[in-house]
Amino acid sequence: MVNNTDLTICLFPKALSIPSGFVTLGICIGNVFVIVSVYSIRSLRKPCYIILASMALVDVLTGIFGFVAGLLFALHGRFFYFGDTVGWLLHKVMVSTIALSLLHHLLLAGDRYFAIMYPYMYIIKVHNRSVMLTLIATWTIVILGLIVILSPYYSKDVQNVLEYTFMILVSTQMYAFHLRIYCKAKKTAGQVSSSTCQAVQNNRSDFKAARITSIILGAFSICILPSLIHSIVIETQGECGRCRLPFYVCSMLAYANSMLNPIVYGISNKTFSDSYKKIFQKIFQKIIRLC
Q1: pLDDT tens column, 246-284
Q2: Which domains, from first to last, does the chain contain?
Q3: Spatial separation of the C-alpha atoms in residues 134 and 227, rounded to whole Å
Q4: 26-69 confidence digits (pLDDT tens)
Q5: Displacement of CA 200 from its chain's centroid (Å)
C-alpha cells in the first residue's frame, strides 16, 4: 500500500484544461519531429544533436505523463489526483523526468564548452559512440534514482533536500559553462568574423551551436526557475500555498518548457526548419491520399 499522506490533493482550475491540452499536443508533436530529424538527416548526427534528440525523448515522455495527468483530472477532477496510488507514482516519475531534463541541459552545456574551449581534444575524445554511452549512463542513473525514491524508506524530507541540492548544483554548473563560453565568444568574435581559416570556420560553427544551447538554457531558466523558487517558498511557508494560482501558473510554465525546445531548434537552425517542412509535407500528402 502506498503512503500518500505527504501529498496534497488540489482541485485543478478548469480554465487551464484547454491550454494544458494544447501544450501536451505541442510537446509530443514537436519533439517527435526533432527525433525524426536527427535520425533521418546525416548532418544532424553529431554529438550535440544526439543529445538534443535524447532530450526530445525526455520531453515526449513528459508530454505522455502530462496526458495521463490530464486524463486523471478528467476522471476525478483533481490535479494529478495525488490521493491515488497512480497519481503518487506519476508525481514521482515526473520528478525524475525533470532531473533527467536537467542532466541533458548540463550535457549540452558541457558539450559546447569543450568544443569551444578545447577544440582539438574535443575532436579526438568526443564522438557519437562516447555520447551514446554517456546518455545510456545518464538514463540508467535516473532510472535507479526513481527506484530509490519509490522505496517506502525514502522520506519526503530527504527527497526535498536531495532535489533542491541536485537542482542547485546542476544549474550552477550549467551557468558556469555558458559564462565561460560567452567570455570566449566575446574574446574571439573579431577573429571569427574576419578570418577565412578552416579552423576558424569550424569554430564559427561551434559558436552557432553554442548560441542555440544558450537560447535553450534561457528558455529553460524562464520556465523552470519560477517553479523552483515557488517550491522553495512553499516548503518554508507550508502546504497552504500549494493549491493557489501561482502554483498552477508555475507548474504550467515548467511544463510548457518541453514545448519550446523544438520551436527554438526550428528558428535557430535551418536544417531543423527544412526537416520540419518536409515532415509536414509528407503528413499532409498522406492525409490527402486517405481522404
Answers
A1: 767 777 777 788 888 888 888 878 888 888 888 888 888
A2: 14-271 (1.20.1070.10)
A3: 28
A4: 888 999 999 999 998 888 888 888 999 999 999 898 888 777 76
A5: 31
